Amino acid sequence: MASASYSLLPEITDHKRYFFEKLGLSERLLERCLGEALSAGGEFADLYFEAVTSTSLGMDEGIVKTASQGISVGCGIRVLSGERTGFAYTDDLSSDRLLKAARTAALIASGPQIERVQGFTETRTPQLYPVAGVSSDVEIAAKLKLIERADKAARDFDPRIVQVRASINDELRRILIAASDGTFASDTQPLARLNIFVIAKDEQNNMARGTSGGGGRVALDFFTGDKSPEHFAREAARTAILQLGAVAAPAGEMEVVLGPGWPGVLLHEAVGHGLEADFNRKKTSAFAGLIGQQVASSKVTVVDNGTMPGRRGSLNVDDEGNPTQETVLIENGILRGYLSDKLSSRLMKMPNTGSGRRESYQAIPMPRMTNTYMLNGEDQPEDILKSVKRGLYAVNFGGGSVDITNGKFVFTASEAYLIEDGKVTAPVKGATLIGNGPEALKYVSMVGNDLALDEGIGTCGKAGQSVPVGVGMPTVKLDRMTVGGTGR
Amino acid sequence: MATETDSKTEWQSLAADIVARALQAGATDAEAVGFESEEFSVNIRLGQVEQLTESGSRALGLRVFFPSQGGQRTASTSTSDLSREGLEQLVRGAVELAKVTGIDPFAGLPEREAFGSQNVDELALYFDDVHDIPAAERIDIARRCEAAAMGFDTRIQNSRGADFDASNARQVMVNSRGFAGEYRRSYCGFSAAPIAQDASGAMQGGSWYSSARSAKLLDSPEEIGIIAAKRALRRLGARRVPTQKCSVVFAPETARGLMGNLLNAADGDAIYRNASMFAGKLGEQVAGENITMVDDGTMVFDHALADGSTLRVGGFGTSPFDGDGLPTRRTVVIERGVLKELMLNTYTARKLGMQTTHKASRGLAGAPGIGGGNYFLEPGTATPEQIIGDVPSGLYVLQTMGTGVNLVTGDYSLGVSGLWIENGELAYPVEEITIAGNLKDMFRSVSAIGNDLEFRGSGAVPTVRVEGMTVAGS
């Protein structure tokens, strides 16, 4: 197909070959599209080609009931002119349709062409994750085995487990980015996730649910080690059985200890979103203008790190073709920086942190988190618990959300216990915790030395776009936070 | 209209072709769906165009069935690659994948005689006038809406923007049991999200919107902008309140989510899995006698226009057939507090040994799930002012945050903001508090239902007041 133009680019990698050979793109066509995109006076244009293959297998009531596979291919074309973005996409990659989309996006500007397309320079990318092939028969058989094992382990855990659903979803996302500033990058991003959902029912007909799961940008062998199907299945079953005996969560302001790992969703909601550069450029974030100021206790250091091997939120390059990095957001309680993409770094005259992400070729990139976590402190987790007279120990959470403008955030505990006189006592029902982003972390009085990242289940939504993310935290004590239960 | 007919034939024949190919490949039954849409969206901020998107997309989905001893094996595929190779992969992938699935005694398409569709033209879901609004006017509507919000009060100096969206979508479904259905829907809407700031520097956002199937039914951009401004302004100076038990009044926009849980708990999928507090409760009292909740996929509304004429327009949740290819219908799910019907599709009905209530929802990928059409809580007679007026001290909820609703146990805990009620009057804004209770109790503790039922989307619930909830705060 386009092998002639393919040879123009040295050091071609497999990602590129996929687009050039299989989908018939050529360097010449990319340049023509970018030229067309800049034809009405835009200052910058980029093309984002994406081909995603996803597979989902689900076992339900002991039967493999669902098997589905999806293929999505398309290109999004963006043109920037000042603060304005013109955007068009197409799922037809013929040169006619690509050029038409480029002309549509170009119309955000109106004037003569002022910018030329620069020669492409390829972004050098690390290899943070294995490059797997598209699901083969062998892989499907292996995946079926995993969900069968999960199903069995959950049922074997306790006779009160009456319903089990186990599923495995994975996708392979190939991207190629070419921009008028010479950016040229490509990547192949695997993503896998095993999910277990169980229902427990006791003799008194009390019911409870339990969920668990994990994965990352990993190959299937990830699930052969510690993170086995049995590990996740037992975790889901354990949570459900525990909830059968849960008492009402307390209501009101109290001391709260958050366990390590997924409770780091606190950081994602309380500070992460508020530090995305677009909100701060527009001064619509409660954190706007607070760089250099104290926004957390001095024990708190928070980073966003897209370079962790195999992690769900990691990326070799962001969706604008920039390498990802480790960005310090809060250092010893002082707000240090924002997460930025090309548009915000240009307009705000600040460094680009490689945080431009998008849900798909049908969406415009914006600054997003990758893996967001708090660094270790010096406290022993058991000392932290011992220090609490009466409070809540929350070790697992469902989702959370935040109102960027007033800073109020919530996150909902799915596994929590009362702490009475320094001892962890009764499990409590799920409850929503609420706080104020720029204030909440000022009440962090102890930080454990047991940093853990989540199991690889996070999906973050912003402006209707979902992207996979990671969170993490050591055990942390907050001297006050409002717990939304019904008890005393 | 001629072009519509041509293109309709093209889409339906493509879907029919996919079904035929699946049968050739050995499937005994197959079902293909096609989605096609055109989208326009513009975002304005501080009077300037910030983002403008114009695009279209198409995709196909396929489900195949293979009978086996005691049941069927089934699998599904979807693709946006409509090239010859892409379509071959769509069929081949589904057939291959079905081989690895287990035998499910309840899987399979509905019986031949069950298929059908409401009259597509009578449902009035598509209006050309949405497509015909020029881009400049679309931009202008968003700009006027934001300008009205920004000009309303000097405490509004910033904005998260305003937008205008327009789309039209075509959906087709063809299966091997003789069903072929197709319909188009149009949509347009705009909104503004101004930010108010008080002397202390604290910011509060507010937003409001108008949406419609026909351009004729859009509200005035200025009116919507001013409502958005008022919604931001009334949150300024919000404080916390002490933890207590009190009456909680839900404004329609939050009552919708609360009462929508009645339908979520009646979801056949959750019922057969024992994953709902309503499992085994069919025919029993699950809410107060004042609660009647209806799901209706057939609603068409008569709108009075300024020129005195009437425009008939289908609801946002209206469609001619459900995700199984069965005609949509009206279902009284909760009648005077009794769980009368469940939200069932063909599969969940078979699992429960019942008849489907035609609530299947079908996306591009996978088997049909459960999804209703339009829904509403039957209104009461009290005005919202009367409902608030009877509360000596309580909470008026304008916004909820979070995911703390557990339909298995009924446990309910959400972050909220709103206004505090003192002596029957809205006294001051409150925030950073939670409300909690158990839905099983809450549905029996609805002490008032308003007369203010208004469909602004597919679901509508009037103002409701719930007694005995816990507010957690300072």
TrEMBL record, chain A:
Domain of life: Bacteria
Domain (Metalloprotease TldD/E C-terminal): residue spans on this chain: 252-485
Keyword terms of this UniProt record: Hydrolase, Metalloprotease, Protease
UniProt-listed GO biological process terms: proteolysis
Pfam family, one: PmbA_TldD_3rd
A GO molecular-function annotation: metallopeptidase activity
Domain Metalloprotease TldD/E central intervals: 136-244
Cellular component terms per the entry's GO annotation: cytosol
Domain Metalloprotease TldD/E N-terminal: 45-109
PANTHER family in alphabetical order: METALLOPROTEASE TLDD, UNCHARACTERIZED PROTEIN TLDD AND PMBA
Family: Belongs to the peptidase U62 family.
Name of protein: TldD protein
UniProt lineage: Bacteria, Pseudomonadati, Acidobacteriota, Terriglobia, Terriglobales
TrEMBL record, chain B:
GO biological process, one term: proteolysis
Domain Metalloprotease TldD/E central: 130-236
All copies of domain Metalloprotease TldD/E N-terminal, residue ranges: 30-98
UniProt xrefs under InterPro entries: Metalloprtase-TldD/E_C (IPR045569), Metalloprtase-TldD/E_cen_dom (IPR045570), Metalloprtase-TldD/E_N (IPR002510), PmbA (IPR047657), TldD/PmbA_N (IPR035068), TldD/PmbA_sf (IPR036059)
Residue span, Metalloprotease TldD/E C-terminal domain: 243-473
Gene Ontology CC annotation, any one: cytosol
GO MF annotations in UniProt: metallopeptidase activity
UniProt-listed PANTHER family: METALLOPROTEASE PMBA
Protein family: Belongs to the peptidase U62 family.
Protein known as: PmbA protein
Organism: Granulicella mallensis
